[in-house]
Amino acid sequence: MIRVLVADDQHLVRAGLSALLGAEPDIEVAGVAADGAEALTMARELVPDVACLDIRMPGRSGIEVARELCAPDADPQVPVLVLTTFDLDDYVFGALEAGASGFLLKDAAPETIVAAVRQVAAGQGTIDQTLTRRILQEFVHRRGLQPVTGRRVDELLTPREHEILMLLAQGMSNDDIARTLVVEVSTVKSHLARMLPKLGVQSRLQAVVWAYQNHVVTVPGPGA
C-alpha cells in the first residue's frame, strides 16, 4: 500500500486530490495538510511513501518543505511530488533543485497524477511532459555547469553506472533498465544508490537533469 500525504492550501484541491488517490486500491491517503508548516510536521510524523505538495502555501512553500524532506541528511527522507497550477521556470527549477522526485501541473489528467504517485513511490522521477524539453534546454543553455562536470563522468562512474545513467536519460524505469541490461531490479537500485552521491544529486530525476546539463547526453531538438 502506498501511503500519501496531500498538502494544499485550497480545500477543494485537497478534497479532490484525496478522493482521487484514495479511490485507488493500492493508495492510502495517510494525512492532509493545509499549509507548508503542517505538511512538514505531518510528513515527519507519518513518514509517507510520497508527499504531494503544492508550490504556493502559507508559511512555508512546497519548495521549502521539499528541501527539508529531501535533503541528504533528512531523517526521515520523504519522496516529494510537486503539484501546481504554475509552470513558471523558477518554480520548476526550484522544485528539482530542492530534491523533488516529480513535478506535475494540477490540470494533468487524473490517471497521470495517479501514475506519477506510483512512479515516485517506486523511486522513479516524473516531469509533466509539456515541460520536459523546456526544462532541459533551460538547464543546459541558461544555467552554468555544476562543479562536477560531464568531462569527468568517466572518472566518476563505473562503465555500468555510466550505462545506467544513459538509460535513465532515455526515460527508462528501474524495471526497463533491468530488462535491457539483463540484471535484477535490485542490482539496478544498488548501482543507483552508489551513483547519485558521486554526481552530487539526490534523485533519479536530478541525475537525468545533470546528464543533460553537463552534456553527457544532448537535449532533443524541436522535431524530436
Q: Which strands sit side by side, in order, in the main sheet?
A: 2-1-3-4-5-6
Could you say which structural class the secondary elements and strand pairing correspond to? alpha/beta
Q: If you consult CATH, what is the topology of the largest domain? A: Rossmann fold
Number of helices: 11
Q: How far apart are the termini? A: 37 Å
CATH superfamily of the largest domain: Response regulator
Mean pLDDT metric: 83
Which radius of gyration do the C-alpha atoms yield? 17 Å
Q: Give the overall shape.
A: globular
Compressed to H and E, one letter per element, the order equals EHEHEHEHEHEHHHHHH
Q: Helical residue percent?
A: 40-55%
The CATH class of the largest domain turns out to be Alpha Beta
Strand coverage percent: 5-15%
Number of strands: 6
Model regions low in confidence, pLDDT < 50 over at least 5 residues:
none
Biggest sheet features? 6 strands, parallel
- What is the name of the CATH architecture of the largest domain? 3-Layer(aba) Sandwich
Describe the protein in words.
This protein is an alpha/beta fold and 224 residues long. It folds into two domains: 2-130, 3-Layer(aba) Sandwich (Rossmann fold), CATH 3.40.50.2300; 148-213, Arc Repressor Mutant, subunit A. It contains eleven helices and six strands. A six-stranded parallel beta sheet has the order 2-1-3-4-5-6, with helices on both faces. Helix 8 (159-169) crosses helix 11 and helix 9 (174-181) crosses helix 10 (185-199). The protein is globular. The protein starts with a strand and ends in an 11-residue tail after the last helix. The model has no long low-confidence stretch (mean pLDDT 83). This is Two component transcriptional regulator, LuxR family. Keywords: DNA-binding, Phosphoprotein, Transcription, Transcription regulation. Residues 150-215 form the HTH luxR-type domain.
